[in-house]
Structures are given as structure tokens and as C-alpha cells.
């Protein structure tokens, strides 16, 4: 099993310059992927409140690597899992994009 860790400072691969909200303090820009459909960027809650999407990733770039320092948004970790005396290792080379999905694979 692999885990993706969001680094403290990230950048999106493309910036939606039409965004009318507040600019990010970091100057990085918004975290909503420009390939996210417009109808998915706002939802109405069960109480009738309008919620705006603040982060998305459509994983549409084929073969993206999540090895530390290779991706603009995500980092897959390379660590052993010692919980409950487990004999497994999280390996970042098993996390990649394929067919518009983020794939987290295992090797047996």
C-alpha cells in the first residue's frame, strides 16, 4: 500500500486566470486543475449553501511520476510500514498516472 503526501508548497500545472477569488498568499495560484469540469467546481450542500472547490487534480497527464521532487502537487513516500510488525514497504515507483487515473500498485 502506498500513501500520497501533500507537500507544504505546491504548484498546479496550469493556472485558471479567470479565477475571481482571493489570490494565494504564496503567489502559487489556485489548486483547482483547469481540466476540472466547470459544473464540478461548485456544489450546493444539503443546507442550501454553495461550496466552491478549492483543490482538484484530474490526473490527465499520462505517466506522471510521484517520486519526491518529480511532481508539482503530490509526493509518494518511500518508507517501511512497521505497524503491527508488517513486512511491507511503501515504494513511490508504484504510484503513477494511467488512463486518467492515479494508480497505486503493489507487487507481490
From TrEMBL:
* This protein's record includes keyword Ligase: no
The protein's superkingdom reads Eukaryota
Q: Keyword set for this entry?
A: Cell wall biogenesis/degradation, Glycoprotein, Membrane
Name where it's found.
Membrane
Name where it mostly resides: membrane
Q: Which GO terms describe its molecular function?
A: glucosidase activity
- Give one GO biological process term: (1->6)-beta-D-glucan biosynthetic process
Q: Which GO terms describe its cellular component?
A: endoplasmic reticulum membrane; plasma membrane
UniProt-listed PANTHER family: BETA-GLUCAN SYNTHESIS-ASSOCIATED PROTEIN KRE6-RELATED (PTHR31361)
Q: What is this protein called?
A: Uncharacterized protein
> What species does this protein belong to?
Aphanomyces astaci (Crayfish plague agent)
Amino acid at each position: 500500500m502506498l500513501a500520497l503526501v501533500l507537500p507544504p508548497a505546491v504548484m498546479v500545472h496550469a493556472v485558471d486566470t479567470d479565477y475571481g477569488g482571493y489570490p494565494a498568499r504564496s503567489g502559487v495560484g489556485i489548486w483547482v486543475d483547469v481540466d476540472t469540469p466547470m459544473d464540478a467546481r461548485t456544489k450546493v450542500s444539503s443546507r442550501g449553501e454553495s461550496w466552491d472547490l478549492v483543490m482538484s487534480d484530474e490526473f490527465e497527464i499520462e505517466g506522471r511520476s510521484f517520486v519526491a521532487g518529480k511532481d508539482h502537487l503530490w509526493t509518494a513516500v518511500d518508507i517501511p510500514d512497521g505497524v503491527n510488525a508488517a513486512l511491507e514497504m511503501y515504494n513511490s515507483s508504484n504510484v503513477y498516472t494511467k488512463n486518467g487515473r492515479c494508480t497505486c500498485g503493489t507487487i507481490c
